[in-house]
Design goal:
Layout (H helix, E strand, L loop, with lengths): L1 H23 L12 E2 L1 E4 L2 E4 L10 E5 L16 H14 L3 E4 L5 H13 L5 E6 L3 H4 L8 H18 L3 E3 L9 E3 L7 E6 L5 H10 L4 H4 L6 E3 L5 H21 L1 E2 L1 E4 L12 H7 L10 E3 L9 E4 L5 H5 L4 H11 L4 E6 L10 H17 L4 E5 L36 E5 L3 E6 L2 E5 L3 E7 L10 E6 L6 E4 L4 E7 L1 E5 L6 E5 L4 H11 L17 E3 L1 E3 L9 E3 L11 E4 L2 E7 L5 E3 L4 E3 L11 E3 L2 E4 L2 E2 L3 E2 L2 E4 L9 E5 L1 H10 L4
Parallel strand pairs: 1-11, 4-5, 4-16, 5-6, 6-9, 9-12, 14-15, 15-16, 23-36
Antiparallel strand pairs: 2-3, 7-8, 10-13, 17-38, 18-19, 19-20, 20-30, 21-24, 21-34, 21-35, 22-23, 24-25, 25-26, 27-28, 29-30, 31-32, 32-33, 34-37
């Protein structure tokens, strides 16, 4: 019996020791070993897949896949293996040959990629991003601080081990997932991308701090080195890349192409002082100042995040194609647009317009001479945007679809709630809702959309509102905050009572030219003035950047539509000042000690429908919150099919 116990104990110890060294240890046994495997390499401004070299090189027709789904943040890693497998089929059917990840996904992604590629006639290649701790980059630390360097080394080691299927992460750590990464996908990994949009302040702080430190201005490593005109931050990037390459080369006898994340705010070009000052372009990073040594055979490439319509590019009077050609002319290595897309946010573009603009961007990428690009794959509800985030409770963004938010709607695949929930019906008016909209359904026999007028007064907040709208000769039985005006297909709109105007509360001074919080400018709680629901579409905050997003467009997939005596109006939650409809949070009064947006919870809204001029009797409609998890359907947008047509052509 004693021998049996000893034997079992030894086996258990052996198992845990082996498991530790195989999955957990960073021990490298093959110091400076020669690489036995190179999947892809940078050569003469082209990417070449080993064994498949061509004069044209490998053209990246990629998708940038996020980690989020409706109801989840990206760091929840909610996507299942079966979903990834389905997506991979859809991606390849569109013509894609590459998937790019900003950071590590959960083990399910790598398990799915290995299974899919093991059976596919043509594999999907992987561009793997390596993100670092953004908190450190936005603190008082520079790039050479010990905390930053340790974070970089840890992220590089972890990512390489994950790609080779030899990592177990028991606890989630920052940007890193958790679980057992046992699927080796290294044979399909064509490149690593270090970093994710480094803050310009972090770069310039590093460069300023070490501007006269010769040791930090240059770097000479085993696989990477800098030129004599490199900056301290470029020296840091070379050091980070050298560590990454060394770790993979020595532990796995493999080399992978390496790139360093860049975007217009950190690109190597000079802009006018006015543009640089306004947009905060305080730094420039030039990967041409980093070069491989003779021992690094895979080589470097230049990944850029660049979106059509980027404000800096546009203000520099460059077309998207012009910017891409400028990048290609500047670099001696392959340029890849690691992420591009066009948002179909309601305040910007329709889905058809998005498709046309993305199609144009695909053409520009193919004609500019660069080595390809990766289009944003799916909408990610948890993301927020500078011009709407003030209006939302950022702790609740995954649980509802803000169709006004630009950053939430870049995908070529969206998500549609499964069904509407009816709140109540009263005479002609039925209210319904889902995770995207509040629906007003009006049944009115004989109503003529072009000849007749219709009004729907809405009471959201109990803290303010008007009992009348003199402009339309309307009176209400309770204070109203919003008024839907249906006045033909071209002149219908949502209006807001001036006290409850969130745009005024936040942007009055920058965009409208006055301080709304001065005593003489504060609107009355019962003001009868209703005005446009405005939004700012660029950071200039001048009159040309302000647009009336309360204007309603007519059409079956638009804001309102008439069919068989039923008028259906859908209003985005955000336009009605809901900060988080999933938990019934709305904006509280901006002027009662808040001086901006704060939240309060309600249980009912009130509404009525009236025709012509009359007195409206608003009745309550009880709101329903929804749990974090809800059902939805994936929906491929028109842009998917435009890309499919273009990527099906020979490149």
């Amino acid at each position: 019996m004693k021998k049996f116990v000893i034997t079992i104990t030894i086996l258990i110890l052996f198992f845990f020791t082996f498991s530790f060294f195989y999955y957990e240890s960073d021990l490298v046994l093959n110091s400076q070993a020669q690489p036995e495997k190179i999947i892809a390499k940078s050569e003469n401004k082209k990417i070449q897949i080993t064994g498949q070299e061509t004069a044209e090189g490998f053209f990246v027709k990629g998708v940038s896949a996020g980690a989020g789904l409706p109801g989840y943040y990206g760091y929840d890693f909610p996507i299942k293996k079966e979903t990834y497998l389905r997506w991979f089929s859809m991606m390849q059917a569109m013509g894609a040959n590459t998937v790019k990840l900003d950071s590590l996904h959960g083990p399910e992604f790598y398990d799915a990629l290995k299974e899919y590629n093991s059976e596919a006639e043509t594999p999907l290649y992987l561009l793997q991003g390596i993100t670092f701790n953004s908190y450190l980059h936005n603190s008082r630390r520079d790039a050479f601080h010990k905390d930053v360097l340790e974070d970089v080394r840890d992220a590089c080691r972890t990512t390489v081990d994950v790609i080779h299927g030899r990592k177990r992460l028991a606890l989630r750590k920052g940007h890193i997932g958790s679980g057992s990464y046992t699927s080796d996908v290294s044979e399909w990994t064509i490149g690593f991308i270090l970093g994710s949009q480094f803050p310009t302040e972090f770069i310039s702080y590093t460069d300023h701090t070490y501007s006269i430190d010769a040791e930090k201005n240059t770097y000479k490593g085993t696989f990477l080195e800098t030129t004599s005109d490199s900056s301290p931050f470029e020296s840091f990037l070379a050091m980070a890349g050298d560590f990454l390459i060394t770790y993979e080369n020595n532990k796995y006898k493999m080399q992978t192409m390496t790139g360093f994340s860049c975007y217009p705010l950190t690109d190597p070009f000079e802009y006018s002082s006015e543009i640089s000052s306004f947009y905060g372009k305080s730094a420039a990073t030039d990967i041409e100042h980093i070069r491989p040594t003779s021992l690094y055979h895979a080589g470097l490439f230049a990944p850029y995040t660049a979106y059509p319509g980027d404000e800096i590019i546009s203000e520099d009077n460059l077309s998207y194609e012009g910017y891409l050609k400028k990048l290609n002319d500047h670099h001696s290595i392959p340029v890849v647009i690691s992420e591009f897309g066009v948002s179909d946010s309601r305040c910007l573009h329709t889905a058809d317009q998005q498709a046309e603009l993305i199609g144009n961007a695909v053409d520009d990428i193919q004609s500019s001479g660069i080595s390809g690009g990766c289009v944003v794959w799916q909408d990610q509800w948890f993301k927020h945007t500078w011009n709407t985030m003030y209006s939302s409770n950022l702790h609740g963004t995954p649980y509802w679809h803000d169709v006004q938010s630009i950053n939430s709607n870049y995908g070529i695949m969206g998500f549609v709630p499964d069904e509407k929930e009816t709140l109540a019906t009263h005479e002609d008016l039925t209210l319904q809702c889902d995770q995207s909209f509040l629906y007003f359904c009006v049944n009115r026999k004989g109503f003529n959309i072009e000849r007749d007028r219709l009004y729907i007064p809405i009471d959201i907040t109990p803290e303010s509102g008007s009992y009348s709208a003199p402009e339309f000769n309307l009176k209400f039985n309770r204070p109203c905050d919003f008024l839907i005006v249906i006045d033909g297909k071209k002149n219908s709109r949502l209006m807001v009572q001036e006290r409850y105007d969130s745009f005024r509360s936040t942007y009055a001074e920058e965009a409208l030219g006055f301080n709304t919080y001065l005593k003489e400018n504060i609107p009355s709680e019962t003001s009868s003035v209703f005005g446009p629901v405005n939004i700012c579409l660029n950071r200039r905050f001048d009159q040309s950047s302000v647009t009336d997003t309360g204007r309603l467009t007519y059409g079956k997939d638009a804001d309102f539509y008439m069919e068989n005596d039923q008028l259906l109006i859908k209003i985005p939650w955000q336009l009605l000042n809901f900060a988080d409809p999933s938990s019934k949070l709305i904006h509280s009064d901006y002027y009662n000690h808040n001086y901006g947006v704060d939240y309060t919870r309600i249980n009912h809204i009130y509404a009525d429908v009236c025709y012509g001029t009359s007195r409206a009797s608003l009745i309550p409609y009880k709101l329903k919150s929804w749990k974090k998890r809800f059902s939805y359907e994936e929906k491929l947008k028109p842009a998917y099919y435009v890309i499919k047509e273009k990527w099906g052509e020979k490149v």
